[in-house]
Amino acid sequence: MQEMVGTTGLILNEPLLTERGRKGRCGISLPRRDVEYFPLDASIAGEGPNFPDLSEVEVVRHYTRLSTWNFGVDTGLYPLGSCTMKYNPKTNERQAALPGFAGAHPLLPASLSQGVLKMMYDLQGFLAELTCMDAVTLQPAAGAHGELAGMLIFHAYHQSKGAPRSKIIVPDTAHGTNPASAALCGYRPVNVQSNEQGVLSPETIAAVMDEETAGIMITNPNTLGLFEENIQQIAEIVHARGGLVYADGANMNAIMGIVGVGDIGVDVLHLNLHKTFSTPHGGGGPGSGPVCVKTYLEPFLPVPRVSEKDGRYFLSEDFPQSVGKLHGFYGHVGVMIRAYCYILSLGPELKKVSQLAVLNANYIKEKLKDTLHLPYDRPCMHECVFSDKNQEAEKVTTLDMVKRLIDYGFHPPTIYFPLVVHGAIMIEPTETESKEDLDVFIESFKNVVKDAKENPEMLHDAPRKPKLRRLDETSAARHPCLTC
Ligand SMILES: *Cc1c(COP(=O)(O)O)cnc(C)c1O
Fold first, then answer.
1. 326 and 200: one domain?
2. What's the chain's average pLDDT?
3. Residues lining ligand 1, CB < 6 A?
């Protein structure tokens, strides 16, 4: 491709600062020197670093331009499914940065940390109320970490009954971290398949549940974006044989204020504060995966626990049956503050968040189902799953279509997941997108499919508009070149 020259910020050719520098240029203006110039003895000062000479504005423009090359939820729709990546109110960032919170140190005594401890104590209560569970730990640092905590609690529970068990039932529509967490805890995951409707049948569970099985891990809504509607019956089957029910609630964004998870037979549940509750997921930042349990599992929660007595808040280690400590200090407090503010500012409106998230996903599903193949044509929760089956004749794949979507200015959705759908395209619009923005996305996807019909070659070659075209993803993973 011939390189374009120009002065506009829209031409994404940014030289390195070392290429840009010109000897003698200076980034700061100092007052004129009124003393003799006196060079430092090189043997004392040494050789300075070989930084390029640049003016202030050159540096500002360089970094400002680079900052606009990132695609994020602040620049456009980010429709990744399975891991809620939604727009979060900026005010919650501000509250987390309040000096009283930002300056709190975990080594301060409880007497000087009452505000932070109260915030955590109240947040535990909010999450218990929202999920209809009884007790909460905020300690785990991620969803998968919460799952591990949950599995340790399963183990401690069965141990306390004097009969440890060896297996866990994990459906094919569970999140991939579920079997991994079970295995990490020493359990053998037993895979079960969902039915033609994309959900679990009670009969399937009844056939595998036995006294060697510690329980089941159900992702609900599952990774097809469908609600496990038989969960109560399944819980009864598992409980009848002495097992426990774990619900992966990372996708709580679909059911907040609508489903009382504790009322439908769930014993242990984890939430992802860094998805549903106002901290962005992804980007490698800190997370928080609180675990909520029923009363009979409370003694096993990790320590320390945030406790309260006579209006004073403190951390307590005095729980002899606890599974122990899972994180340095008390987890990622900054994430908790955002969740605390998010819940306080929305209150009962949290239910509306979920209603809108579900409405938006169903809107996309209905508008695109005549264009893309929809393997499970039924009401979805917060995300919908299509496939590339209709494009087989043109030999156009899911990857080709989402790469073409980049030419229309959209970040690709999640692809080839969940594994139960061949060539899956999984879209989660979230609650904050307006109808107008959803319509542009839908229209763009329709155009992609039209392009696929009329000119399949173009799709094999997509994207065409960005500075970098189709990347060789295999080479990028196998032979990463990190310096050029
Ligand atoms: C994101 C997610 C997880 C894992 O959460 P992490 O914080 O990434 O460890 C688990 N289950 C489901 C359903 C998820 O969407």
1. yes
2. 93
3. 82-83, 142-144, 175, 177, 219, 248, 250-251, 272, 287, 289
